[in-house]
């Protein structure tokens, strides 16, 4: 099929399709296009971003159904077939015969590739091995010297997931500080963020807007670009002495202090009120997943703060208040906070 015709058909569902490789476009036309059209008839839009609890449950259901149909005895064998060379040929044959691609993606309005990657992350037992030992960190450095960024190879040798070894290496590849930030480190961080934001804004075409709209849009861009979707690995490289997650956390702190003029927002009576109102608002929303929440709308509960600050406060609240929170769904966590923690906070207030 003509490649331009495929791009045109897919562009309705995947706006950035023209930036995708020819091979990926042809795969998407085989695995996704018919599904996307069917979802469109049902009034369902194609989704990107983080998976909801409902989607995760559907993936588990699809995997279980496929295992029962084929007799393959584990999700790990199905999704990480290369780990089982003696069964490889049989599993590949069963996957082709029973239409694995279609079965895995049933009921999920996302590109098949993203569903597959999500399934691999969910069912990889190597994802849940806890902290890296000093010995493992040294092995990781050694293997990276030999194999470079071949995370698939390194993950097999270390019995860790691809994502886990790649992220851990980003933390240990250079001398990283773990104590308080120095003034020089903070200056480097602010300069690095300024550089990436300026570069991004300069590439956007705002000249075509009327001057009245351009003025208000510039303000909106400035505010959003201060904290949304920044390239943290690039910023990490510019700072040099901190890994990307530390940079992100520190920038949230710097930005919050700037936006609130250094006023404490989450202590004493104000802190109690903020926790109480946050629990009440989340309970009123009746959402099933944290990814369905517009955290910007909740920022006014605490004050003029970025969304990451609100999410961080909620994370701390659930970890400190909800027993076995990792095993609970988002709605169960909210119900527990509303029924158990809220009365306690109101009494303290």
Automatic annotation (TrEMBL):
GO terms for cellular component: nucleolus. Residues 124-172, 173-255 form the Myb-like domain. SUPFAM superfamilies: Homeodomain-like. GO terms for biological process: termination of RNA polymerase I transcription. InterPro entries: Homeodomain-like_sf, SANT/Myb, TTF1-like. SMART domains: SANT. GO terms for molecular function: chromatin binding. Pfam families: Myb_DNA-bind_6 (PF13921). PROSITE patterns: MYB_LIKE. This is TTF1 factor. It comes from Halcyon senegalensis. The gene is Ttf1.
